[in-house]
Design brief:
By secondary structure, this protein is an all-alpha fold. Helix content is about 75%, strand content about 0%. It has 13 helices and two strands; from the N terminus they run ααααββααααααααα. The protein has a two-stranded antiparallel ribbon with strand order 1-2. It is globular.
Length: about 280
């Protein structure tokens, strides 16, 4: 049996490989020299990133026996949705961030209106990519579009952004914080796994297992993000602000156990998902 550090090393290599595959596929959808609004879209979607959500989707599909290439288009669509959310999150009316992924944020580079429009266009391009990919299996494509739109909309990521916006200047409470991050962060992480199961033709039990797992690691991802950020800046809407750093880490460990427990009924290969839990629990950046 591999030790934890060996599992982490293997996992990091896996994510590097899948990130490279996703990057190449994204370049085919977004030629940087296209000019106009396409240039603004490419600036954000081709910026260096972990591609965590697309890699999760591919991992779910592969764990059930599907080749990564068959999940690549939906994985790129997922990254379009994620980048749309980042562009809008950075806007002056939202978080007003000047940098994203080591570069000036989209609105700092191109202006607020072009950034807003690029985010809108990336969201729509995501569904166009799935529709083009799904011509051979319209029923599956329709299922993916339903999953992705639900996780991206008012009951998912965008709704989480709205809750966070409304929470500013208010007293933080546990349930509101959890709901913000279930929607804002957890929804896209969970749906990445669900779409991977759907693409691979997994059963209801597999879908239930990875849905529970996705909700847990989505929360774990955010808790650790907040703990890491606490060492650099104080965020009012964060788990350390509510629990303290030690309390937030204890909550992260409890959430990691829930994630692992969710895998009990999963029929596919689960080693990589177990390694992801350990990686998220211990990551420093």
């Amino acid at each position: 049996m591999k030790r934890k550090n060996e599992m982490t090393s293997d996992l990091e290599q896996y994510f590097l490989e899948k990130s490279a595959l996703v990057n190449r596929a994204l370049e085919s959808y977004f030629p940087a020299a296209a000019g106009g609004l396409s240039e603004v879209m490419a600036y954000s979607v081709l910026s260096p990133g972990k591609r965590f959500r697309p890699a999760l989707m591919i991992a779910a599909a592969e764990s059930l026996g599907l080749d990564a290439s068959e999940a690549m288009a939906p994985a790129c669509a997922m990254e379009c949705i994620h980048c749309f959310s980042l562009i809008h999150d950075d806007l002056p009316s939202m978080d007003n961030d000047d940098f994203r992924r080591g570069k000036p944020s989209c609105h700092r580079r191109f202006g607020e209106a072009p950034a807003l429009l690029a985010g809108d266009a990336l969201m729509l391009r995501a569904f166009e990519i799935i529709a083009e990919w799904g011509t051979g299996d319209p029923r599956k494509a329709l299922g993916i579009i339903g999953e992705l739109s639900g996780a991206s909309g008012s009951a998912g990521m965008t709704g989480g952004q709205y809750l966070e916006y409304c929470q500013k200047e208010k007293t933080l409470d546990r349930e509101t914080l959890l709901e913000i991050h279930r929607q804002k962060t957890g929804a896209l992480i969970t749906v990445s796994l669900r779409i991977g199961v759907l693409i691979a033709g997994g059963g209801a039990g597999d879908m239930e297992a990875l849905t529970g797992y996705g909700k847990a690691i989505g929360l774990l991802f955010q808790i650790r993000d907040d703990i890491i950020d606490a060492g650099h800046r104080r965020e009012a809407i964060s788990f350390p602000a509510l629990y303290g750093v030690e309390g937030a880490q204890a909550f992260a460990e409890e959430t990691a156990k829930q994630a692992l427990g969710s895998l009990a009924s999963f029929t596919g290969r689960r080693e990589r998902f177990e390694a992801i839990v350990q990686y998220l629990l211990l990551r420093k950046r």
